[in-house]
Amino acid sequence: MMEELPHRYAPVAVTVDVVALTIRDRRLQVLVAERDAGPYAGSRALPGGFIRPEEELAEAAVRELGARPAHLEQLASYGGPGRMRVLSVSYLAFVPHLPRPRAGAAWHPADDLPPLASDHARIVADGVERARAKLEYTPLASAFAGDTFTISELRQIYETVWGTRLHPGNFHRKVLSVPGFVEGTGATTRTGGVRGGPRARLYRAGDARLLHPPLLRPGSAGTAPDRSPGRW
Amino acid sequence: MMEELPHRYAPVAVTVDVVALTIRDRRLQVLVAERDAGPYAGSRALPGGFIRPEEELAEAAVRELGARPAHLEQLASYGGPGRMRVLSVSYLAFVPHLPRPRAGAAWHPADDLPPLASDHARIVADGVERARAKLEYTPLASAFAGDTFTISELRQIYETVWGTRLHPGNFHRKVLSVPGFVEGTGATTRTGGVRGGPRARLYRAGDARLLHPPLLRPGSAGTAPDRSPGRW
DNA sequence: CCAATAGTGTCTGTGAGACATTATGTT
DNA sequence: AACATAATGTCTCACAGACACTATTGG
């Protein structure tokens, strides 16, 4: 079925902006691009750009990111007259390791960002909060890790994204008790920790897509998933 | 700063489509509009239309809905080449009572919808799932009720949206134990239930915006095989 | 009287968190 | 030797769910 192009309505320019998160130096970091042209030239902004006629929204996000993330999901759309007829569809991406960012882009700590164009700072805040909530009830923390990882490495991911310390023993038992969260590889690390300790067992991501029961953020007051983008 | 209109990029037509939910006849119902013009004339679709230059996205959603909902939040955006350069930003609305739908629109049970245009059936599915999740950790169930309501009425809302039966006694105690969920009015219903029983106390929505601890859906918890014979 | 409902009490299993313990590594 | 870490065990508290029970209303 073909939808006729409604040219009698004022057209809108649609961009895709990506909140790409990784963990580097034990900090949650966001990919920030330098704008080399346009009215915001010289300033910084999220990686993004105008969508092309033949591509899906998610494809545009991957193209603007310049790499295939371990996880990608839509965040929200931001429009309104304050944006001069530019509608931004934002995406959240989890990127493992430290891929070298494409030219003109650099990682910045999520809690120490430079000034960003438009309302991108708010988009980042929405993305970080979404990421924190996602770790509670999905196994996506492993999207920040390599193919195999130890329970301690997984715990560090949680601690970094949530900004809290977690009890190592309880975390260990909890992760292994959730079906499908991780599965053992039979292997262990080649050496103990930097400061000693036995070799840790290596795990890979399991096949669960949701965690039952979830790993709840400590500090009982406070955390609830907020999937609603924008108050209106 | 002014953002220059990037006319060198192919423009896109942006619509806002609303998944409006209410509870009628103890069923979750969705507002469906008749399309009176355009390529889908005669078919049904979600209430929606093209955004206007001077309005916010949420304003457009309220305008297309034709009424101010008790709750409104953005759902997601749907684009891609399969939609012929029409990008749809969808919204989820909770509507209390049974306001008379505007001309050309009618309520349909969410689990028995007529064929809808484009991918609107999927948008409805996304909206219903979002609504179910929202009831778990927000007090928004009261958005389906009147100004005051009984605990039983609140429970019926949960049962209808979730499609499950809930234990009356446990639900009662749970709701009253969550701070800020409901607050008593001091009044009671004028009569008992249709089939008897004492007069129920009336409550109004409290000031909490999040429920902690949340009301979890039964069935989602408990990975172990269901050992309880009595199913509520 | 009978049935249905409002509201409360009580018990139990589960799980989170605090803390302890043992084994195994590194410096 | 000293210490950090991996992994597991134990205890307690909170809470969800099952179940019981009383009081109050309509038919």
What can you tell me about this protein's structure?
The structure is a homodimer of 232-residue chains. The first copy, chain A, has 232 residues and is an alpha+beta fold. Chain A has a domain of 122 residues: Nucleoside Triphosphate Pyrophosphohydrolase (Alpha-Beta Complex). Chain A has four helices and ten strands; from the N terminus they run ββββαβββαβααββ. In chain A, the strands form two sheets. In chain A, strands 1, 2, 3, 4, 5, 6 and 7 form a seven-stranded mixed beta sheet that branches. In chain A, strands 8-10-9 form a three-stranded antiparallel beta sheet. In chain A, a hairpin with a 7-residue loop joins β5 and β6. The longest helix of chain A is centred in the middle third of the chain and has 18 residues. Chain A starts with 12 loop residues before the first strand and ends in a 27-residue tail after the last strand. Chains A and B meet through β5 and β6 of A and α1, β5, β6 and α2 of B. The structure holds a DNA duplex (27 and 27 nucleotides).
Could you spell the SSE succession of chain A in H and E letters?
EEEEHEEEHEHHEE
> Whole-number average pLDDT of chain A?
88
Task: Specify the CATH architecture of one domain in chain A.
Answer: Alpha-Beta Complex
CATH class of one domain in chain A: Alpha Beta
Fraction in beta strands of chain A: 25-35%
Please report the total strand number of chain A as a whole number.
10
SS-derived structural category of chain A: alpha+beta
**What's the CATH topology label of one domain in chain A?**
Nucleoside Triphosphate Pyrophosphohydrolase
Radius of gyration of chain A: 20 Å
Enumerate how many helices of chain A there are, as a single number: 4
- Largest interface, counted by CB within 8 Å of the partner chain's CB: A-B, 50 and 56 residues
* Share of helical residues of chain A: 10-25%
Main sheet of chain A? Answer: 7 strands, mixed
Shape of chain A: elongated
User: Low-confidence stretches of chain A at least 5 residues in length (pLDDT < 50)?
Assistant: 1-7, 221-232
N-C termini distance of chain A: 33 Å
- Report the oligomer: homodimer
CATH superfamily of one domain in chain A: Nucleoside Triphosphate Pyrophosphohydrolase
